[in-house]
Amino acid sequence: MTQVFLGLGSNIERQRYLVAGLDALQALFGALELSPVYDSAAIGFDGQPFLNMVVAVDTTLPLATMAARLRQIETEHGRPLNATRFSARRLDIDILTYGDLVGEHDGISLPRGEILDNAFVLRPLAELAPTALHPGNGLSYATLWRGYQQQSQTLVRVDFAWQGRWISRAE
Question: Would you tell me which of 8, 97, 102, 153 could form a disulfide with 119, CB atoms 3.0–4.6 Å apart?
Fold first, then answer.
């Protein structure tokens, strides 16, 4: 089994599509470990704010197969096949890490650069797996979050329920 961290986001019908994404990931992987959910501004384009979170899964799927299945889930939930990187999305699922892989694998750059660049990825990752180590630099996610310029991107934890239980409560 390989532990994988995934970033989930939505800025169109945000609650609906985040729930749909979690349902689809549970159907694909089984048990999910979930971070709190955060409201954050769109980065890289002018758009509605996003809801973002990080999900940990264990899988036996090879990286390329898993990536294809995740793209299929995005497409089934309204992501155009020709969607540009910085654009509005109903559902966005990014592979943040795949075990301890580093570098380019099956056309995927690992670990994903947004871990170190964006608060909406690093903070939920640090809360979900504070002692886990970033495969590229060996630092824990909690250490990376403490060293991050936290005022550079505003995040607001939001109330979010899934399958009848609160997974996130507003601060």
Answer: 153
